[in-house]
Amino acid sequence: MTLPPPTLAQRAQFRLEALAFDLGAAGIHALGPDRASALGSSLWRRIAPLNKRHARAEAHLRAAFPTLDDRAIASLLVEMWDNLGRTSAEAFHLPQLIAEQDRFTIRPGFFEAIRMAKSRGAVFVSLHLGNWELASPLLHHNGLPVAGVYQRLRNPIVDERATEARGPFYARGLYSKGPETARKLLRIVGEGGTVTIMADLRDLTGLSVPFFGRPAPSNIFPALLARGRDVPLFAGIVARKDGATFEADVAEIPVQRSADRDADLLETTAAIQRQFEAFIRARPGQWMWGHRRWQR
Question: Helices 33-47 and 70-90: crossing angle, nearest 10°?
């Protein structure tokens, strides 16, 4: 569906927002990645708990970890906002962070996944844990050209700024979500390419599978893509170690390929979410608990 053109007032608002974005970006750039990361942490730890998502995040943490006491839950919430503040600021320093490879500890599974993907194509899924913005750029830096998917921003000027900054790390293209993008990704993987998809958020068009013991509407497209194009499926993370330093790891997800397509998609999607849960349980303070992950 084609959206109506923005009104004069909307265009003025977009320009003002873009000006604020540009000024903020310039200031964050001037700080360098480490000071920017620390500033993001400081600001978000103070301001973010005032947001309504704080209460939702707390409720989700208590449901996922019912044995934790109040102090432990409070500590995880502080860590969550710390990580999100750092990640937001670090988004303006992706080229420098990726260029400084001594910031990264990379597990052997990461390189094995790249080797397999180069030989036949692959689907990589990730989640909003640690600094997820670095996942695809890290694959690119290590010689794997990828296509990616992103959620288009409401402000078209800011959206263009953001995609221009990320575009160089997506040699096979960076596409906004939509039906046409799904067809493009099917073609890319069919040609032996690799795509990366964030797959941890609620998807009301998907299937409900267990996630921390509760049914969670989940994206089936990664399973459909890997099964339909007969390529491997990997789940990867770039977890935070300390400040702006990171640990990258990849786990292969078994893809079911039987005569029952629907059962295969259900089990493979469930396997993705099981791996995501394992990643989160190892670092519960680094995932975004404030999303409506379980609600229909």
Answer: 140
Size of the chain in residues: 296
Q: Work out the number of other CB atoms within 10 angstroms of the CB of residue 16.
A: 12
Straight-line distance from the first to the last Cα atom of the chain, in angstroms, rounded to the nearest whole number: 24
pLDDT tens for residues 113-128?
A: 999 999 999 999 999 9
- Report how far residue 83's alpha carbon sits from residue 77's, in angstroms, rounded to the nearest whole number: 10
Q: Where are the domains of the chain?
A: 8-286
Cβ pair 86, 158 in contact under 8 A: no
Which positions ≥6 away from 47 have C-beta within 8 Å?
none
CA distances from 74 to 61, 86, 128, 172, 285 (A): 10, 19, 20, 42, 10
| Tens of pLDDT, residues 169-220 | 999 999 998 889 999 999 999 999 999 999 999 999 999 999 999 999 999 9
Tokens 């409506």 identify what position? 292
The string of pLDDT tens digits covering residues 72-119 is 999 999 999 999 999 999 999 999 999 999 999 999 999 999 999 999
